[in-house]
Amino acid sequence: MRAGKLDKRVAILREQETGRDEVNQPIIEWVTVATVWGQLAPDRGGERIEAQQLTGAENATFRIGYRGDLTVKDRVTCEGRAWDIRSVREIGRRVGTEFDVTARAD
C-alpha cells in the first residue's frame, strides 16, 4: 500500500455511552476514535425496492493503515459524509485494512 494514495482524512466513529437521561436510560452517541489518512475507491451504486419504494445505495471501499480494532459496528466519515461499515479485511500481513461501506441516508 503506497502512502501517496492515502489522500483522504477518514474519521473512525464508535458508539459510546456518554451519560444518562432523566429516566436513567443510556445516552448513546457516535464518538471519534481516530482520524487517519485513507484512500476512497467508489463502487457502483444500486437501486432496489424496499417497503414498496425505490431506494438507492452508494457503496465504496476504503483503504487505511492497519487497524486491528475496526469492526462492522463502527462507522466512518469522510469529506462530510457518513458511511456504515459492511465488511473489514486485512491487507497483507498487517500492512493495511480495507473495508466496504455504504453511504448513510442521514
Could you explain how this protein is built, in words?
By secondary structure, the protein is mostly beta strands. The protein has a single domain, classed as Bacteriophage SPP1 head-tail adaptor protein (Thrombin, subunit H), CATH 2.40.10. It is built from no helices and 8 strands. 11% of the residues are buried.
User: Ranges with pLDDT <50 over ≥5 residues?
Assistant: none
Number of H- or I-type helical stretches = 0
Quantity of strands, as a count: 8
Largest sheet: 6 strands, antiparallel, barrel
Shape: globular
The helix/strand class is mainly beta
Strand content: over 45%
What's the oligomerization state?
A: single chain
State the domain count: 1
Kindly report the CATH topology.
Thrombin, subunit H
Strand order of the largest sheet: 1-2-5-8-7-6
Mean pLDDT: 86
